[in-house]
Design brief:
There is one protein chain. The protein is mainly alpha-helical. It has 5 helices and no strands. The radius of gyration is 13 Å and the shape is globular. It starts with a helix and ends with a helix.
Length: 94
């Protein structure tokens, strides 16, 4: 999924108009984002040490968040829940 996002959008935010037309890719992104959220929770509770990550890995989290932000915002609006993916959102700021 990460590779597909990069091929389609390079370092730009995803295009939600395009994503809405591709149910399979929409589900892939949602699953990928769920995995990133689970990893972020693991970092928050101390299972993983984010400080140990190489700088390139940190940039990956920041860049990926910027790319997926339109998707995150749409899911939050649809579900009327601003707390969805909050651990992933706050991770790049740690």
């Amino acid at each position: 999924t990460e590779k597909k996002i990069h091929i389609r959008y390079h370092m730009n935010p995803i295009d939600m108009n395009e994503i809405r037309k591709d149910d399979t890719f929409w589900i892939e992104i949602k699953n990928y984002l769920s995995q990133l959220e689970q990893l972020s929770v693991g970092i928050r509770i101390g299972i993983y040490d984010f400080d140990y990550c190489r700088p390139s890995q940190r940039r990956f989290f920041v860049n990926t968040y910027v790319q997926l932000k339109p998707f995150i915002n749409e899911i939050r609006t649809f579900r009327n829940d601003s707390s969805l993916y909050i651990d992933y959102q706050t991770l790049p700021n740690n």
